[in-house]
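About this split. The held-out portion is used to measure sequence recovery: a designer receives only the structure tokens and must propose an amino acid at every position. Recovery is the fraction of positions where the proposal matches the reference. Here is one held-out target exactly as it appears in the evaluation file.
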């Protein structure tokens, strides 16, 4: 293969022009970096925001131009060299080069992976039928939208956040929606059984048919999907299927000395095991309170990208210490989640579930708030973030009392810590 060197001046190269990559590139300039910045993506579209794809964009409430992260003019003004439709197929960390699919060699002074995540694929008979969709890109969203006029019955495989948001959007569009989830309750592995029951009833109350504890064994049809066959013997009629069974970090670009454990393993400064190579956002495994974790959400991608950019300019100058946060809009519900935990010891409910306005706290064995879910209570967001961040034991009776402000709960926990 013929190879051509792109330039003789070594730039900072960012592979992946999603949320993390765009904010990292922009932050390099904002932090005073004057060298060349090359931002590369295999997608041909101007970098865009992904969360609206399952919501406002799917509903036709937002146009393509509304979801672009930045304009061409903005990239030019910041002197960010945006290379779209360019696929990097390998890197050589020792030579500090990246090689594109057409053999072009791109030299770099420092390299940042912001390669995001890739979809888990459902491998069953009939997966290649027409109208079996996945939603990851703007092209995916456009393809789904273009077919909806001819669709009345939709099956969504997977009751995660993408599946739940799509169910909400498609129901608003007047479609007959069935969610098929292999777990007993939706989102219970993240939010617990009580909240799993809540979200199950939420979708059912909106007229969505939610089937749990069952999975796809086959898609059936001639050229286009017409039925979903399940392990428990169900036959579900449909004219379209959208599969949303999760994602995995995109670590297809690698090096024998690069530490990869699900994602690119980085330290608190975003440094990988290779010198001058960094990773940020969905593709990274990063340290949080004694363990490496992986977060696939917008807020983390923004903040991690910005933070790692600082460390690319001034090494080890800005440890990443953000509290994980994500949100989801489903029907008329705004859901917000702060923190991260998989093995909480107890939960505390503040408010009334029946009122559909409450905060649900996840505590460890020391009564420290590790995470919290807010349902239709955005005014509590700042106080909840502080409670998660402080890592002091709280009085659970005060925490559950809606007449006691969360600010006072936070102050009381601080006072008790100081007294102790």
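Reference sequence for scoring:
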């Amino acid at each position: 293969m013929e190879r051509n060197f792109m330039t003789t001046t070594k730039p900072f190269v960012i592979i992946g022009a999603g949320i993390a990559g765009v904010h990292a590139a922009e932050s390099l300039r904002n932090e005073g970096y004057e060298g060349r910045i090359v931002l590369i993506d295999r997608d041909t579209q101007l970098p865009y925001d992904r969360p609206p794809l399952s919501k406002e964009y799917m509903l036709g409430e937002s146009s393509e131009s509304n979801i672009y992260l930045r304009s061409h003019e903005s990239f030019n003004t910041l002197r960010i060299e945006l290379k779209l439709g360019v696929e990097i197929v390998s890197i050589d960390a020792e030579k500090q080069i990246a090689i594109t699919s057409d053999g072009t060699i791109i030299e770099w002074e420092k390299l940042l992976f912001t390669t995001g995540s890739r979809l888990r694929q459902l491998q069953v008979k009939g997966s290649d039928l027409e109208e079996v969709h996945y939603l990851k890109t703007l092209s995916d969203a456009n393809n789904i939208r273009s077919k909806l006029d001819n669709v009345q019955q939709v099956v969504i495989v997977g009751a995660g956040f993408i599946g739940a948001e799509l169910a909400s959007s498609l129901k608003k569009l007047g479609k007959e929606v069935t969610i098929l989830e292999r777990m007993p309750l939706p989102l219970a592995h993240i939010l617990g059984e009580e909240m799993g029951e809540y979200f199950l009833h939420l979708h059912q109350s909106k007229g969505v048919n939610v089937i749990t504890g069952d999975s796809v064994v086959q898609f059936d049809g001639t050229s286009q999907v017409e039925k979903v066959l399940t392990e428990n013997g169900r036959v579900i009629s449909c004219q379209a299927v959208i599969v949303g069974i999760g994602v995995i970090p995109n670590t297809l670009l690698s090096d024998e000395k690069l530490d990869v454990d699900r994602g690119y393993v980085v330290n608190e400064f975003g440094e990988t095991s290779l010198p001058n190579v960094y990773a940020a956002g969905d593709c990274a495994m990063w340290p949080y309170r004694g363990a490496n974790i992986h977060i696939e959400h917008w807020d983390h991608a923004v903040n991690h990208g910005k933070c790692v950019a600082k460390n690319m300019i001034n090494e080890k100058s800005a440890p990443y210490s953000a509290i994980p946060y994500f949100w989801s809009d489903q029907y008329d519900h705004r859901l917000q989640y702060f923190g991260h935990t998989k093995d909480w010891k107890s939960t505390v409910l503040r408010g009334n579930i029946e009122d559909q306005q409450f905060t649900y706290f996840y505590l460890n064995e020391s009564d420290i708030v590790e995470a919290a879910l807010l349902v239709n209570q955005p005014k509590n967001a700042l106080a909840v973030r502080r409670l998660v961040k402080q890592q002091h034991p709280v009085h659970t009776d005060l925490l559950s009392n809606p007449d006691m402000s969360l600010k006072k709960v936070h102050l009381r926990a601080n006072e008790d810590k100081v007294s102790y």
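Annotator remark: DSSP finds eleven helices and 27 strands in the chain.
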